Amino acid sequence: MVDSGATDNYILQQAIGMLGLTPQRALKPMQVYMINGEYKWITDQVHIKAIILGDSQKLTFDVLNSIKYDAILEMP
What would the CATH number be for the domain defined by 2-74? Predict the structure, then answer.
C-alpha cells in the first residue's frame, strides 16, 4: 500500500519471515502514532534492495507487528 501520510516505510513482522528477510535492531528505537490513536514502538528494521521502474534503490522498512497490510510505502 502506498500511503501519502506515512512518514516511513513499514513492514509487517510476519511478512519478514515469509520473505526470508533478517531484521536488525534499529539504531534508535522510536515511537510512532498509528491512525487508530495507538502508539507503537519501532525496535527493528529490515534493509532491502528494490528495483522500481528499472531504478535500483536501497529501502529501509520499520518493523511493526500489527498493521493491516504486509507493507506500507511512504510517499517521497
Answer: 2.40.70
- Whole-structure pTM value: 0.82
Q: Where are the domains of the chain?
A: 2-74
User: What average pLDDT is seen over the chain?
Assistant: 88
C-alpha cell at 39: 502508539
Check: CB of residue 42 under 8 Å from CB of residue 30. yes
b/e sequence 5-23, b meaning 16+ C-beta within 10 Å: ebeebbbbeebbeeeeeeb
pLDDT at 7: 81
Cβ atoms of 48 and 58 closer than 8 Å: yes
